[in-house]
Design a protein that fits this description.
With 231 residues, the protein is an alpha/beta fold. It has helices at 3-8, 19-34, 55-61, 72-81, 93-97, 118-131, 149-164, 167-178, 181-189, 196-205, and strands at residues 43-47, 64-68, 88-91, 104-110, 132-143, 208-212, 224-230. Helices cover 45% and strands 19% of the residues. The structure holds S-adenosylmethionine.
Length: 231
């Protein structure tokens, strides 16, 4: 397991400053992604979905939602949470990669690419290319640009918190991040950053025709979302 997957595999209060933050975060991205579901018959894949606390909202917009999570404890919690929802399956990355070609209308990779090396992302783009229907779409969200990423992330969190009633918890949460494993892992393994041109070139090389969406999915407007279709 990569160190970032291990980091995400246990209950921690570093990324989400409290339960309200986690719930509002997942509701916001589920609502944003839902707008891209092309029809009520759509097969949707959310890869690296994390705790995905609002996936029932997303599943309701299409025919079936496959959640893919590499972290085993998070995956077990997802399976338990959605056991009663026949529109949601929970897969390992290997199970997802083994699905037949052309299985999905919409594939989402949100806030995951920064934890992958460039080669790992290329490999995933190839898998997604095979799994997408010819008229399907891949959404790559929360791409972190190279400049001023940390201050932008802090400011975006504080604004999101102020708008959703957890501002003081967010201030404390930011202080906790400074003494957390997140910064140690970031220093050791780094995060992958792409500017708009680099991500568009990467998607083109992987066989997609892509554009940058007018706004990012989720709460951080300084990060970028890309919409890619098989070329
Ligand atoms: C910030 S969370 C994103 C969760 C969710 N998509 C969201 O937007 O809130 C990052 C996710 O990336 C996953 N991840 C990190 N490194 C990975 C890797 N090498 N392969 C697959 N998933 C990975 C983690 O397990 C975690 O679920």
């Amino acid at each position: 397991m990569s160190d970032w997957i291990s980091f995400y595999d246990f209950k921690h209060s570093v990324i989400y400053v409290n339960a309200r933050h986690r719930d509002v975060h997942y509701r916001t991205i589920a609502e944003d992604i839902r707008a891209y579901v092309p029809s009520p018959t759509a097969q949707v894949l959310d890869y690296g979905c994390g705790e995905a606390a609002s996936s029932d909202l997303l599943a309701a917009a299409g025919s079936h939602l496959t959640l893919v999570e590499a972290a085993p404890n998070v995956r077990a919690a997802l399976a338990a949470r959605y056991a009663g929802n026949p529109k949601i399956s929970v897969f390992t990355p290997e199970e997802a990669a083994a699905q037949p070609a052309g299985s999905f209308d919409l594939i989402v990779l949100h806030s995951v690419a920064q934890y992958l090396t460039a080669a790992e992302l290329d490999r995933l783009l190839g898998i997604f290319r095979r799994l997408l229907k010819a008229d399907g779409m891949l959404i790559i969200g929360d791409i972190v640009p190279p400049k001023l990423a940390a201050p932008a992330a802090a400011l975006a969190l504080l604004r999101f918190a102020a708008a959703n009633g957890f501002f003081f918890a967010a201030v404390l949460g930011l202080m906790r991040i400074f003494v957390s494993d997140y910064l140690r892992l970031k220093k050791t393994f780094g995060l992958s950053h792409y500017d708009e041109a680099a991500m568009l070139a990467k998607l083109k090389a992987a066989g997609y025709a892509a554009t940058r969406a007018t706004r990012n999915i989720g709460h951080n407007p300084w990060r970028m979302t890309f919409l890619a279709r098989p070329a």
